[in-house]
Amino acid sequence: MSAINFWWKSVSTGSMFGRTGTGPRPTDDLTIPTRDDLFDLQIRSDDFTRLTAESLRVAKIVETKQYANSVLRGCIRCGVINAETGQPDTTKINRDMVNKIAIISVPKQRELVNMLFFWEEEMMRWRLLSREEDDLTSQLSNSTLSANALVHAKENLQIVQAKKRVPPSRRDDSGRSFEELLPGYERKKITAAIPSVDQGQTYVFVTNCDVEGTLDDTKVLFGPAVLEVNPPAPEINYSVLKE
Question: Which of 46, 81, 200, 218 is found 20 to 30 A from 7 (Cα to Cα)?
C-alpha cells in the first residue's frame, strides 16, 4: 500500500456549522458516561453494530423516542446510517444533513456527527476482536493441537471475549483496556500540518495516495474529519490614517 496521505477540502461559505466565523463553536466529543451508556445499550442488543432510535436517545442526541425515530429516518435518508445494517457511514456526512435532519438543532447535529465517528471506531475495534475470537475458536477445533496449546488457546479466547465487553471508560486513548493491552494494537499517532490556505470549515481525509483534483472512495482510508480553521488576525495599516 502507498504511504498514508492527508487530503484537505476547505469550505469558505455556509455549512452545517454555520457561516465561517459565525455561529456557535463545534461541541466537544461525546462524554465518557455517554459513551459508556451507548456501549452498554449496544452490547446488550442482538446486533452490537446496529444503531437504532434508542441508540440516539441514549447518546443524548434527542430526549424522546418519537424524536429519535424521526432523526433516525433522517440519518437513513442522507445515508449517514445504512438502512440495511444500521451502521454509520461517515463518508456520507455533508451539508445536506442540515436539511434532512432539520428536526434537531445545529449543535445537536454536531453531537450526532461525533457519535457516528465514535461508533465507527467502536465497530472497528469490535471487528478486530471478533476476528481474533474466530481464529482462537478455530484453533480449539484443531484435533492436532497439543494439550499446552489447547490450554493457551482457551485462556486467550476468554481474554478476548472479556475485552469485547470492556466499556470505553476502562480503556486508554488507543482503545486498549487498562488491565491488559488489546492484541494487535499499537500506540501510534499520525500528524499533519493544516495547509495555510485553508480557512473556515475544512474536511480532512486520510488517503492511500497523493490526491489532486477529484477525490473518490477508492483513495479514502478514513474520514472525513471536520475542522474549523480560524483565519489569521487582520493586519491594520495605520499609515493610511490621517490626523
Answer: 81
